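Changelog note: in this version the structure field was regenerated for every chain. One regenerated record is shown below for reference.
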Amino acid sequence: MAISQIKAVIPAAGLGTRFLPATKAMPKEMLPVVDKPAIQYVVEEAVEAGIDDILVIIGRNKNAISNHFDSVPELEEKLTEKGDTGRLAHVMKSSDLADIHYLRQGEPKGLGHAVLRAKTHVGDSSFAVLLGDDLIDERDPLLPTMIDKHVETGATVIALMEVDPDSIHMYGAAAVESTGDPDIVKVTGLVEKPAKEDAPSNLAVIGRYVLPAAVFPILERTEPGKGGEIQLTDALQELAADADGPGVYGVVFRGRRYDTGDRVDYIKAIVQLASDREDLGPELRPWLKDFAERL
């Protein structure tokens, strides 16, 4: 299978309640991270991995997402008249990134349900799932490694990251076996948001998956689980337990990741990314040092 055959699915139908009242009328995926909405980083990541067909699963009041990736001729004309080529390039880039499609989830029934909604668009192809509020720094590419492992084995591939055991209850946790490669593990089991004492490891599932179309019939019969929602983790557990199938592998990510779904991590993401930028860092870094000394 070639990478060009793999599509991307970005679930973006969540209510963003942790950011109320900011997300009362604005999708949480459109909250700016420095000067781009969070979801644009995710789309750019998929494009950099060679994917040009992207389906965004949206909910009510999410039209701002599709508007962002549309062209805005009147704005482009104004910037052209002003000779503002820098901002014009940024505006036009978001309109030309990829072939982006949109599908409503309807009733929010969990991540597994959102992924299942992509069945008609994806068809029999493998596909990547990228959570819209989970940002992977472009300097630490993750998705290409996951796609390569899927193409090699035909297996489901998920992204894992070591977390503090005290935080594992916030994630899906993976039971794993070594493959001889420290960055690739065989996943033997998954537990959604376990208590610390029940977690099989401190390897947490983060928001990147490369899935075969075989996940769809499993999701169709998956009953609501944790939180009364259809959990993708439960379907992945079935794939991992299938002795006759290609199984599930995990790529252990050791790079920079930003959880923009959490308020504190969202602020950290803005500070870290802005500090590293050539146009903002030289002014921001000294101010941060001075501010930290005054705390």
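Spot check on this record: The CA atoms of residues 69 and 94 lie 5 Å apart. The chain has a mean pLDDT of 89.
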